[in-house]
Amino acid sequence: VSRQLKEEIRRGFARLEDPLAGLLAMLESSSDWKGKGHSLGYCITTELQLWIKEHPAVPQSGTKLKKLQARVLGMLSQCPANLLDPLISIYQLHTADRNYLLEHVSHLYLQGDYKEAAILSIKLKLQPDQDVEKMCTPLLLQDKANLVEDYVAEYPELQRKLLQTLDTWCDPSFNIRDITRPYQGLSRYKPEKFNRRVLSKLVFRLLERFNVDPALCPNVINQRHLRTLNYLFYKRFVEKTMTEENWADHIQSTVGESRWLQGQLVQALLRHCDARGAARWARRLRTPPEMLPWAVAQELQELHVQDRVEEVTKADNYEDSKKKDYYQLPIPRENIHFLQTWEETLQCWEKVLQPGQVVGVDMEWKPSFGMVGKPRVALLQLALKDEVFLLDLPRLLEQAEAEGEKEKLPRFVQMLYSDAAITKLGYGMSGDLSSLAATCSALKDTEKQMQGVVDLLAVDKQVDGLSPEHSHEERGVRQPEKGLSLLVQHVLGKPLDKTEQLSNWEKRPLREEQILYAASDAYCLLEIYERLCKDPESFGLGSDLTESLVGKQSKKPRAKKQLNKQEAPSPSGQECQGPRTEPSCPPAPISPRELSVVCDNMLQGLGRYLRCLGVDVRLLDNEDDHRKAAEIARQEGRVILTSGLPYQTLRSQVGEGRCFSVNCSEKAKDQALQVLRHFNVQVSLGDIFSRCQ
């Protein structure tokens, strides 16, 4: 605002007998101030606010002020947000009669102005005298969860009441329609945003933001634990990628003392194995016999007291003979050091912080399975050419705190990451560093100071094809490799054994399998980097790989998520025709009904998405061999949609242009867009949901 205008406004106030009444008269007679932004009304109001501070005699009291307050209250619900605070301050609404203010807000609420009623309540701090459920329900139905958070932000008691209410709504036996029925005619009503899944996400967000004890929300917590149980059973009995010991660890910590979850566990065990296995777990968890099905209770009586739970099932584990299928550490076991004291750790640092050193860095934490809070790093792995150091972070941080030297760990980590003369190798460093910052708040800016780092996740996006020295062998029904394991398979010929990935990394002592897994995860980065630097062309990388990576990664490498609108996918999403030289003419447009595809077993999400758009889709099951896709494609004239390594094998088994590789790091929607663009599929409204889902 120009100085001249400000001076003119102030002269105007000085001439008025009653500036407060004058401002109201001006605002009431003009609509200019109702728009967004800095209107003339806004300028005059804020100038008056400043002018009053300089002229303390101006503020009024008594009946005259009450009348002005009544008039200004009537205007506040139409006010732009930037005028609320100045008007409340000028007309001293905080001193107005509280019952009168509550009555006014109640009137707004009854008119259906729920948002305005809530905002005014926040500004006037009326929440303690209101019903939190009544005020927040219509806001949640209008998808205004952020306003609900602000409404309870300064009142711990209201936070607890709101969380208990939301938790009640998430009880599986609760009928959510009982809540929504009175608000059927609500403007901007979004019933699809008001369901248990959305509400339980909100509960977790509030628990974390307000640091409330999760025990306050047993329904939401139990449902999340039940999903974790189902996931653990899937990993153990369907995928068969989790060892018995590992699985038992997680089952024990998930179920805990909850009788309801113990009952769910017994039912799941009966579905996946037998009554004896269920009885062993019932005994381990001390579940009361009256809670158990009759067959399980009978087995429990027959069981002898055992110190240790035996095998629950004969689910296939990876025997030692299968270890030859996986990447093996090339250094002796005695060169892996598990460090729990600062004396040992300082010796490790002397070796790591050498100019010219190349260090593989990785971190492990206990899986949170979607519970509250960020994961805290339990193990920091540092791999050098001849040895690997595993740092027991919880123990080291505890010792440093006890000795009054909290800055020991942050100092070392910052020296390591900011030294351009030391090459740090990682895979998905950004995620690792955010977990490290959650573990030790002094490390929250490490990422901004990074120099000399190589994030192999960024390189992974460019790596093309197999290692020249190894051919691919199918490995039965095992899950397709992904992430770092797939890169290790590409470059070194064998994938990582990921059976320990979901271990409880906080439990001590670590098992031998965990130690070997953790060391391999960090050490393989050194071998990948060495191989790629020696022969970048074999992997579809530029010959200047070393020059382009080392010491220049001070900025966070960004995963290439989005495809350019007109562009074909990069090497990780290769074209079915093989490498292109000149851009060719796009194929003639077709409708979704004319496209018939078969989706490989890691692309079920993409398949379901395409089916929603009317494409003729067949999906491979998780246990199907990739080669089944080629059989179906030949028999039924379908195009194969696949990703990563299987593309190399499958494209040679079908005709030219009948196999397409999508980018496996994309979400299903983006993969679908990639497919539609490539085959020039034009989707109309009539195609959507035209096929049986």
The amount of helix comes to: 40-55%
Named at the architecture level, the CATH assignment of the domain at 336-464 and 483-549 is 2-Layer Sandwich
CATH class of the domain at 336-464 and 483-549: Alpha Beta
Largest sheet: 6 strands, mixed
Say how many strands there are. Answer: 10
Oligomer: single chain
CATH topology call of the domain at 336-464 and 483-549: Nucleotidyltransferase, domain 5
Low-confidence segments, given as residue ranges, are 304-319, 466-477, 551-583
CATH superfamily of the domain at 336-464 and 483-549: Ribonuclease H-like superfamily/Ribonuclease H
**What is the overall number of helices?**
29
Envelope shape: globular
Radius of gyration: 32 Å
Mean pLDDT: 83
Strand content: 5-15%
* First and last CA, distance: 60 Å
Structural class: alpha/beta
Q: Biggest sheet, strands in spatial order?
A: 1-4-3-2-5-6
